[in-house]
Write a structure and sequence with these properties.
The two termini are about 30 Å apart. The protein has nine helices and seven strands, in the order αααβαβαββαβαααββ. A seven-stranded mixed β-sheet has the order 3-2-1-4-5-7-6, with helices on both faces. The chain is α/β, with parallel strands linked by helices.
C-alpha cells in the first residue's frame, strides 16, 4: 500500500468512526455500514485474517461471532485505536494486503472499504497470494466500492460532480476502483468460485470460495 494512503489513515484515525455517520458526501458509501460488516462476519469461518481493520469495527464483530482473528493494519494510529476497542481478543500486526506475517493457518481473508487502494495488477497479485494460503473451501470475503462496468464507474463520478460532491468525485478518480468482471476474472484464474451481493449504490460484497 502506498505511503500516501498510510499518511491519510494516520490523519483520519481520530475522526474515522465519527465520519461514518456525519460526512454527508459519503453518506451513500456508508449506508448499511453495520449490515455490511455483519454480513462479512457471517460469511467468515475458522481463523480469519483481516486487512485494513482501521479502528476495529469488523474485528469486533468477528470476535463476537467466536472467530479467531489476525488483523493486519499499516497505520500505527489506527492500530492504537483498534487495540483500545478489541483489547487482547485478536492478534494485531503491522502490514498490508501484500506484505504480512501470519502465525496461524487462515480459513478466511476479509476486508472492508480498503481493496481499492490496490491497482488491478496488485489485486491480482494479492489474490494469488491468498490462494496459496487457503485450503479448499477457504474464502476471500471483501466488501468495497466496485462497479458492474467501466461505464457505471464513469457515471458515478459524473453524478458526484453534478450533485456537488467534489471530495467524493476526486476520491473516485484518485483511487483504484474496479469492476465486477475484472474481479471475477482475477478470482476465477486462481481457482475460486465467486459471488457478489450489492448493499448500496457503491458497496458490494465479493465472496470467493477456493475450489
Amino acid at each position: 500500500m502506498g505511503k500516501e494512503f498510510i499518511e491519510l489513515f494516520e490523519q483520519w484515525a481520530a475522526t474515522y468512526d465519527e465520519s461514518l455517520n456525519n460526512d454527508l458526501e459519503y453518506k451513500e458509501v456508508f449506508r448499511n455500514y453495520d449490515d455490511i460488516l455483519q454480513e462479512v462476519a457471517n460469511r467468515s469461518f475458522g481463523h480469519v485474517v483481516e486487512f485494513g481493520p482501521g479502528t476495529g469495527n469488523l474485528t469486533l464483530k468477528l470476535i463476537n461471532k467466536g472467530l479467531s482473528v489476525t488483523a493486519i493494519e499499516p497505520s500505527s494510529a489506527m492500530r492504537t485505536l483498534a487495540k483500545d476497542k478489541i483489547g487482547e481478543n485478536a492478534i494485531l500486526k503491522e502490514g498490508d494486503f501484500l506484505e504480512f506475517d501470519l502465525e496461524h493457518q487462515p480459513n478466511t481473508f476479509v476486508s472492508t472499504y480498503a481493496f481499492h487502494h490496490l491497482t488491478d495488477t496488485e489485486k491480482k497479485e494479492a489474490v494469488a497470494l491468498y490462494s496459496n494460503y487457503l485450503p479448499v473451501g477457504g474464502k476471500i470475503v471483501f466488501a468495497d466500492t466496485m462497479y458492474e462496468s467501466k461505464e457505471d464507474y464513469n457515471q458515478a463520478i459524473d453524478h458526484a460532480i453534478k450533485n456537488g460532491l467534489p471530495n467524493l468525485a476526486e476520491d473516485l478518480k484518485r483511487e483504484y476502483y474496479t469492476t465486477i468482471p475484472v474481479l471475477t476474472n482475477i478470482l476465477k484464474e486462481q481457482g475460486f468460485s465467486v459471488h457478489f451481493k450489492q448493499f448500496n449504490d457503491f458497496v458490494w460484497i465479493m465472496e470467493g470460495v477456493k475450489k
